[in-house]
Structure formats: structure tokens, C-alpha cells
Amino acid sequence: MTATDTTTGVDAAKAEAEGSGLSPWSALVGVPHVDVAPHHAPITADIALPGSKSYTNRALLCAAMADGRSTLTGLLRSDDSYWCAESLRRLGAGVTVEGTTATIDGLGRRRPNPEASLYIGSAGTTARFLPGLLAAGGPGRFTLDASRQMRGRPMAPLLLALRQLGADITCPNVPDAPPLEIEGVSLLGGPVRMSGAVSSQFISGVLMAGPLALNGVHVMIEDHVVQKDYVAMTLDMMETFGAIIEADEDLEDMRVETGGYRPADVMLEADASTATYFLALAAVTGGRVTVTNVGTTTRQPDLRFIDILERMGCKVIREPAAVTVAGPPGGYLKGGFDVDMRPLSDATLTLAAIAPYADGPVAIHNVAHIRKHESDRIGVMCAALAALGVPVDERPDGMTIHPARPTHGVMETHDDHRVAMALSVLGVAGEGVRLLDPGCVSKTCPPFFDLLAGLGVGVEVASPE
């Protein structure tokens, strides 16, 4: 890994000093806007998409905590994965990335740099998973800092659980938010009760520390697990790297034995959340898109977006490693339904972007938590739709979008990758859109606009300022 990538010109040290989530893997750095043109012809393509952010960061962390060499293929090269890998390198792990393949020489419980200062940018998964792994590892006093955006996302339930297991974690600036100061060899482990209703990542953060904790961990969920699939993804990845786990079917009682991680070679599948934008393009243009590197064997809940597209009149072909969506002729989608998007909440904005093109209202419920993501996604999307002439009813936990023909607009992205990508889909099907500060797509899909252009969509990138 290098400090500066000649393609983007982003200096990692400067980005860290400024509290930015940008990285040397960022795209469109300094680009003030991107124009996405309308495209009313059917979009037809077979496409392989970048790797899953969720799997990439889980695999990087497990590989770095294994005692030996692991190889990851299909790695997502994004801002979040860059900062995850860079933090592990600073900790003392050997991390070499060539293209989309990473070779990691893991640490086990050793901490060669016992006073490491780690910076994770805006990587939410790393922010939630790394503290427990640091507290459960070898001796050291570690500082973990994050971007301005990530510092505003408190982690109280996670830190409470880790402290109850013995972790010595302090927050010198803001309670329960980065920066964190973490003492190694402080996580004893044992039983802990947690709420699962707030974030699955908090549960995963405790579980991942289990193999390194002196007594393992026994996590008991007091209520229910929101987005259970992501906890299952964590357990799967841990087991791939040799962790010994017992869990009930509802993932409300989970035991992780002490014993560490073993190295593994892992092929990472495409990001299902990213796939929703390209499958949605097939739906609204009456085209056909096959995503060739993620299918029904995935744990990623956002692939269930194809069930909603089927409900809207699309033809869906499901295969173990691929999915195909064919939109209805003319892109005339069916509406007139309500949907609970909580299990696949990252696809909420994708649905909101195509809902205006349905023949009846589409009501989205039970996603109040996305107001506290990179942006207030409910408020931001409702405002964007209204500005483009789409009638929308905002609620605390969602929105109802009514049929309309969106106009062209100049839209803020609010430093939110999902806002930028969803509004791109809306613009393709409508009258086009100008997106300000489009580089935010680098959080999960730096080549997003290149991929759009490869489908025949008109994409004009402004000159960097």
C-alpha cells in the first residue's frame, strides 16, 4: 500500500489530518459534479460488480488476527476497505494489495506496534469490529480515530458490552464515540447480555473478539436481532478463519470459544447493495441486467431486493452465483403496496428512486435507523424527490412515494454514497440529474460512474477544481 495513489492524488496523511474519509483509493477527488443523462432505451448487460464491503472488511480483520498468511480475492477497493487495511498495517500486520487481491500476514494475538495510532476514516464496520479485537489482543495502548462523520456516530451499546467483558476503553473527546483509547489484554470475555434492536454491527463487534478473549464470549440477546443476516455473515467469516462457535437458530444465544483464528484463502462475492442500483436500471428501462458474481447462496440481505422488483412486475432469474432482472416493457412498474425495508435497509433509497415510475404509491416502513447513517437518509431522499417534482409523504420511519415524472435537478449528495447512487438511477429513468460532490461513491463503489457509462448511460464528469 502506498501513501499516495497517482490516479487520485489523495495523500493519506493529509486526509487523516483533515478528518476526511477520502483515501488513495478514492475516485473523483476534487470533481465538483457529475451529470447523469436520461437513458430511455432498455439497458441490457451482463456485469461483474466490485466486492462486498461487508465481506471485505470482515475478511481483512479475521485474516489480520489469524496466525499466518491469508489471501483474499475479489477485494473491494474502496475508501472503507483502504482505511481498514491501513489500520491493520499500522498495527503490524503485513498487508499487500495488488488489484483486487490482498495477501495478509496475520498477527494472532501479537501486537508488534503496541502504541499504534490507527485511523479508520468513515469505515463503520471497522469502527465497530476493531475495538474488541484490540482489547482482546496482546499488550499495548492503542488509539483509534475516525473521520469527522464517523466521530458523530456514537457506539454506546458496543462499548458498554465490551467494558462489561473487561475491556479498558476510554473516549477522551466525546462519550462513546471516536477517538477511542484501548488497552490491550483487557478483554477477559465471558457472558454478556446485549440488545440486538439497535445495530447488528455491535453484536458482531463483540463476537469477533471472542476467539482472542481469554474466556471466549457468550452473547445473549435480550430482545431480537435487527438485520440478523449480517450477524450470520460475521459468524460464517469467523468460522472460515477457524473460530469455534455455537449459536441457536435465532442468533439470540451465541458462544465463541477462545483459541484464536487460523489463516484462510477466501474468494469474496460482489456487493449486493451495489447490485441493487444496476438491477433497478433494468427495471425502470425495461431492460435486462445480469449480475454475474453474487447469487442466491449469499448471506447479504440486500439481494432480496429482487423479490421487490418481482413484485413490481419484473421477471427474475435466480442462480446460486448470479441473478438476472428483466424489467417490464417500457419500464412500467407496479406500485400500490407497502414494504418493510428493515431487513434490507441499505436498499431503501434504491426503491425510493424507482418508486415514482410505478403505477401506484409505494410505502416504505420501519427504517427510522437510516436517519443516523451517513446522512438522514429519509429526510434527504424525501427532500430530493420533492425538489424533482415527486409527491412524497415523509414519516419518522419511512416515506410514501407517489407516481410522478421526475424533472431534471441539481442535487446535493450529502457526502452519502447511497444518496448519490440512488439519485443516479432516478435520473437515468427520468430527465437526468446533476450530482454535486459525487466522489462520495468511493465509500463502497469508486468505479460507479464508469460502470454506468459502460452500460451506455451518458455520464459527464466535470473537471476537478
Short synopsis of the structure:
The protein has 465 residues and is an alpha/beta fold. It has 14 helices and 24 strands.
| Residues in β-strands, percent | 15-25%
Sheet with most strands: strand arrangement? 22-23-1-24
What is the level 1 CATH name of the largest domain?
Answer: Alpha Beta
CATH architecture annotation name of the largest domain: Alpha-beta prism
CATH superfamily of the largest domain: Enolpyruvate transferase domain
The major beta sheet can be summarized as: 4 strands, mixed
Which value, in Å, is the CA radius of gyration? Answer: 21 Å
Instruction: Tally the beta strands.
Output: 24
Terminal CA distance: 26 Å
Number of self-contained structural domains:
2
- Into which percent range does the helicity of residues fall? 25-40%
- Taking all residues together, what is the mean pLDDT? 95
How many DSSP helices? 14
Q: Name the overall outline.
A: globular
Unreliable stretches (pLDDT < 50, length at least 5) are: 1-7
- CATH topology grouping of the largest domain: UDP-n-acetylglucosamine1-carboxyvinyl-transferase, Chain
Which structural class is indicated by helix and strand composition? alpha/beta
